[in-house]
């Protein structure tokens, strides 16, 4: 049996890759279990796409991603998302746990592009590309659901 792997936003695993140079480390039994099972694939699409850390905050505005200063960084976000899909396929990823609200990783809700902390329905660039590739996505706010999904997947795959 080859158990599917789980791609996780690198910031959630303690990597200091956020736009402000910090992390979003979370300690959760699911992530600890996956780490023990060597099923985690850590990934930051913004760094993979060539953005520096720290970097200017960015949000989606329609089909573009722009910084707070108005610089278009869409191409770097798209490159990072494409590299995430390639990594996921190469590593046999079946599920992703991603940073909520992020313009790359947000699942179901992202900031509206006004830099006013207003949320709208939508997915980050990488989250959408992973979903299009058939990979189930969850945010760190949905770890109970993610754990149940993975347990069901593992039971079917067994």
From TrEMBL:
InterPro entries: 2-thiour_desulf
Superkingdom of the organism of origin: Bacteria
Protein name: DUF523 domain-containing protein
Organism: Shewanella avicenniae
Lineage of producing organism: Bacteria, Pseudomonadati, Pseudomonadota, Gammaproteobacteria, Alteromonadales
């Amino acid at each position: 049996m080859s158990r599917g792997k789980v791609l996780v936003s690198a910031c959630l695993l303690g990597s200091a890759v956020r736009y402000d140079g910090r992390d979003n480390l979370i300690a959760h039994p699911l992530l600890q279990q996956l780490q023990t099972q060597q099923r985690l694939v850590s990934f930051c699409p913004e760094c993979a796409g060539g953005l520096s850390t720290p970097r200017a905050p960015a949000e989606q505005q329609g089909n573009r991603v722009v910084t707070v200063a108005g610089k278009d960084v869409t191409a770097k976000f798209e490159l990072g998302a494409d590299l995430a899909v390639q990594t996921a396929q190469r590593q046999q990823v079946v599920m992703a746990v991603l940073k909520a609200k992020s313009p790359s990783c947000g699942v179901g809700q992202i900031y509206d592009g006004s830099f006013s902390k207003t949320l709208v329905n939508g997915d980050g660039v990488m989250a959408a590309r992973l979903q299009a590739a058939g990979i189930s996505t969850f945010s760190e706010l949905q770890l109970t659901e993610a754990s149940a999904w993975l347990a069901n997947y593992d039971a079917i795959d067994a």
